[in-house]
Amino acid sequence: MKLIYSDPKTGLSASMELDEDKKSALLNRKIGDEIDASVFGLTGYKVKITGGSDSSGFPLDRSMQGQLKRKTLRERKKKSTGERVYKRVTVRGNMISTDTNQVSVAIMEYGSKPIEEIFPKKESPPDNKDKEAK
C-alpha cells in the first residue's frame, strides 16, 4: 500500500510504501478520520485521511458507507446549457480495506521534526548537454 502525505500550507507532497505493520494501522478507517502519524515515522504529527483508490484504480467515495465496490449514477450539469447529464461511475466505499492500493492524507497537526526533513528534496535531472555536444 502506498501512503501519499501532503502539507496543505506549503502544497508539498511525498509518498512512502507501507509494510504490513503500518498498513494494519489504516485498515477499517474512514475518509475524514484523524490518526496519529507516529506509526508511519512522522512523530508528533496528526494526519487526516482525505481519499484513496483501490487496486483497480477506482476512487474511494466519501458518501458511500463500507468497503464494497458499487456502480452509482452521478448527476452533473453542463455549464453552457444547464442541461443535466447522468453518468454511471464505479466507486469504492469510504473505508480502507485490504483492496485499497493508495491512501492520501493531509497533515493537520505538526510535530517536532522540521517540515524540510519530512518532504525529501527532489533531485534535479542530470544534464544531457554533454551527450548532445558529442
UniProtKB/TrEMBL annotation:
<comment type="similarity">
    <text>Belongs to the eukaryotic ribosomal protein eS6 family.</text>
</comment>
<dbReference type="GO" id="GO:0003735">
    <property type="term" value="F:structural constituent of ribosome"/>
</dbReference>
<feature type="region of interest" description="Disordered">
    <location>
        <begin position="54"/>
        <end position="82"/>
    </location>
</feature>
<feature type="compositionally biased region" description="Basic residues">
    <location>
        <begin position="68"/>
        <end position="79"/>
    </location>
</feature>
<dbReference type="InterPro" id="IPR001377">
    <property type="entry name" value="Ribosomal_eS6"/>
</dbReference>
<keyword id="KW-0689">Ribosomal protein</keyword>
<dbReference type="GO" id="GO:1990904">
    <property type="term" value="C:ribonucleoprotein complex"/>
</dbReference>
<feature type="region of interest" description="Disordered">
    <location>
        <begin position="115"/>
        <end position="134"/>
    </location>
</feature>
<dbReference type="GO" id="GO:0006412">
    <property type="term" value="P:translation"/>
</dbReference>
<dbReference type="GO" id="GO:0005840">
    <property type="term" value="C:ribosome"/>
</dbReference>
<keyword id="KW-0687">Ribonucleoprotein</keyword>
<protein>
    <submittedName>
        <fullName>Ribosomal protein S6e</fullName>
    </submittedName>
</protein>
<dbReference type="Pfam" id="PF01092">
    <property type="entry name" value="Ribosomal_S6e"/>
</dbReference>
